[in-house]
Hints:
The complex is a heterodimer.
Chain A: H1 8-18, H2 27-39, H3 41-59, H4 68-76, H5 94-131, H6 136-146
Helix pairs in contact in A: 1-3, 2-3
Chain B: H1 6-14, H2 18-40, H3 43-60, H4 70-88, H5 107-110, H6 113-125, H7 129-140, H8 145-152, H9 156-179
Amino acid sequence: MSGQMISDARVLALIEAYGADPDIFPEAERVAARARMTDHPERFAPALEAARQMDALLGGMPEIATPGHLRSALIASAPQPAPVRKFSWKLPVWIPAGALASLTVGLFAGMSVAQPATTQDEQAEAAVYASLGFDTYTLDLEEEALQ
Amino acid sequence: MAFSSDLDRITRAAAGDPAAVSSLVDRYSSGVLALATRMLGDASEAEDVTQETFLRAWKALPGWEPRAKFSTWLHRVALNLCYDRLRKRREVTMEILPERTDPAMNPAELLDQSQRVRAVEDAISHLPERQAAALTLCALQGHSQAEAADIMDVSVEALESLLARARRTLRASLLERAAS
């Protein structure tokens, strides 16, 4: 691209704004400005010299890094992961203890009450059959023989 | 952990992924801190601005608009926080400095290295706020013209004008300091 596409005034304005390095000029004007500066160095020498001094000052500025305490504070202030809710059976101790006690009492009561009742029923049943003239043992044998 | 993009980092950070949070902090906190430090000239205030900026970022993550550029948004928030603080500093007034100086004088030669760094930092923090922002974003942080203009919410032409004035004012300020 030829240097004729950009005026001296524009090149000076670019140097004043962006410094001496044409690589930092806006992309659309970079090539034309560089060509103009190469073609007519004497026109831009004083401006380039002043710009280089300022570039050196700005380029010598130290980088600023995030100190550790600030990094930690920034991370700590970030959103926390949603807690995973683990459902756990945490019942009061008296509930299972009470349930166990109830079960024990129920079983004991059931066994102590039901056992004699069953025996009495069997005795009553035998008495009824006997009174009717059936011998249950004989009856069972007869049924097996028929099968 | 590798992230495919800023959007990936943002999505995961919004869900509380610690690696994504660390990645965003490591990627952008130094730029935000540097901008605030140059603008305010005070390390403690700059850290406060950085924390406030990231707090706002964390709040914005869940509803993040995928087309928005995180870096630009973050720097814009930081810059606006700096503007707010600078406007509250009623007691500090910018001394009007002459913009025309002898081009033969070199401020770098008039100050030694440590003085130079301190003087430049101080001079930048005393520039008019928009000049300081333009210079910091472009000349010190390497943002492109378009990015810096976007962060500052100005046109590229306005940015260029701010940059030219910033450099002139800075040069004059440094020569004043060197002479005194």
